[in-house]
Amino acid sequence: MLPPELLKKIQRFHFKTGKMASDLFAGQYESAFKGQGIEFAEVREYQPGDDVRAIDWNVSARFGRPFVKVFHEERELTVILLLDLSGSHLFGTRNKFKRELLAEVAGMLAFVAIRTNDKVGAILFSAGVEKYIPPKKGASHVWRLIKEIFAYEPRDLTTNLDGVFTYLNRVARRHAIVFLISDCMDEGFDTSLRLTAKKHALSIIRVSDPGEDRLPNVGLVTLRDPETGRVTMVNTGSRRLREAWQRERRARKTYLDDIVRRAGVDLVDLSTDGAVIEPLTRLFDRRQKRLR
Questions:
Q1: DSSP labels for the chain?
Q2: What pTM, to 2 d.p., does this model score?
Q3: Which of 48, 133, 166, 252 is least surrounded, with the fewest CB atoms within 10 Å of its CB?
């Protein structure tokens, strides 16, 4: 049973994400991700402008006038959200924690998917897969998904991206639209990412907070690693330490940028102090242009 305060927060969040998933945004998503084929719908009488290649000659001969075959796109798709619940997401120095940003994006994408009649599921993970929510349709399913994101307490707080990609490729046998939402503070997942990109339409949404990029000069401080729990005292007055911190941040960013570029994967950056809809809209626009 959820505490009343948490339930109210989830209800407000549920309303907010549903509102953010506007019809316009849903239309951009639908254009960016096409169905996997076409299926026969009906035969109707020929109309000026119809493609002559669609004429059904057998039916036309039977009735003595031209008829054409009509096909519809096989639209129904499956969306799977890979949601990183590791400890590094329990951090935020601006408007929200990274986990709240993750939940906001996941809720919005889930609403967009059901508005276009697609199924949506989720894999909650940290050091391993914590929970698998099979893809389904309907607003009640999105409500369950959002509740899980807010209320679920992971058993481990470390990160294993290779493990979640491997699990996804085992349980999702058919092509799916996959969004990894994570701060991507991990390494060694090059091969599994590449295999996932070949099988699915993979996009990575990297979440961050401005406070992570620079170590402020505030003297001696005690830092705790949110994933391992390790506590260290550091002297932030050391210029060498601050520069090393920034080099490490740049190296992590460059590592992911390089492997997603080689794999042909779409990457979008979101920050706890920035916009959400505009960057995602640009992501959908890029995909739509490639499909033309």
A1: ---HHHHHHHHHHHHHHHHHS-HHHHHHHHHHS--S-EEEEEEEE--TT--GGGB-HHHHHHHTS-EEEEEEE----EEEEEEE-SGGGS--SSSS-HHHHHHHHHHHHHHHHHHTT-EEEEEEESSSEEEEEEEE-SHHHHHHHHHHHHH---S--S--HHHHHHHHHHH--S--EEEEEE-----S-HHHHHHHHHHSEEEEEEEE-GGGT-----SEEEEE-TTT--EEEEETT-HHHHHHHHHHHHHHHHHHHHHHHHHT-EEEEEETTS-SHHHHHHHHHHHHHHH-
A2: 0.83
A3: 48
Whether 41 shows a pLDDT value over 70: the answer reads: no
Query: In whole angstroms, what separates CA 100 from the centre of its chain?
Result: 14
Integer angstrom CA distances of residue 167 from 4, 80, 122, 207? 34, 12, 12, 22
Residue range 58-74: average pLDDT? 82
For each of the domains in the chain, give its residue range(s) and CATH number, in order of start: 4-32+76-291 (3.40.50.410), 38-73 (no CATH)
Q: Which of 57-71, 124-138, 195-209, 252-266 has the lowest mean pLDDT?
A: 57-71
Q: What is the mean pLDDT of residues 119-148?
A: 92
Contact of 55 with 67, CB cutoff 8 Å: yes
- What are the tens digits of pLDDT across the range 224-279? 888 888 999 999 999 999 999 999 999 999 999 999 999 999 999 999 998 888 89
